[in-house]
Amino acid sequence: MVDTEGHPAPEEMDLRTILNALSDPLRYQIVQELLDLPEATERTCFSFGFAISKSTLSHHFRTLREAGLVQQVNRGNSRKAHLRRADLDARFPGLLDLVRHNPAPFAPGSTAALSQEA
Amino acid sequence: MVDTEGHPAPEEMDLRTILNALSDPLRYQIVQELLDLPEATERTCFSFGFAISKSTLSHHFRTLREAGLVQQVNRGNSRKAHLRRADLDARFPGLLDLVRHNPAPFAPGSTAALSQEA
Q1: ipTM of the complex as predicted
Q2: Which of B17, B20, B104 is facing A15, going by the closest CB pair?
């Protein structure tokens, strides 16, 4: 059952919803960065350094959360996200490997993209 | 180089564009049906039996073609499409397996969906 925060249970995850979430360059970059970190590493939304508004950032994280890609947890004053790696590997084997093996250029507006341009 | 019909060369294919093409239920079903057929089987757009307008159908096939998922070829009076299986397997290993192993419910408006409801 989808919880009160909008996280679907593994059996509720829909592949097309996940593909749609990953089709956006910024969301793809978030998943890619989380994949490069040790499993269960938590990051705040702001730590990705995108030069976008707070509401746009929240929208992207909501899309990732509702698709089942990330789990968001409140930690004191901050809200942190981690990749639902085990759930995704069990439900859609090969999906995360596809992202892992296809690094994309940094999303426009990310600090990584800006520092590459400088 | 993208050809005059909008087919990208394998090295021009972009995974996010492909994920976006597959995130639509109707387009996902087309790819899934082509995957179930012997390699290089050609189908006309109409053979899928979707109860949608010709222009909407053309839009969906253009999206599939421009992403690199299908190749469309003129055969006398008809235009046929086949899945670019070898190109996709070489460029994005695991992508088609993901679709193959995750059959989706038939897209709304397809004759298959209508006959299931009857």
Answers
A1: 0.86
A2: B104
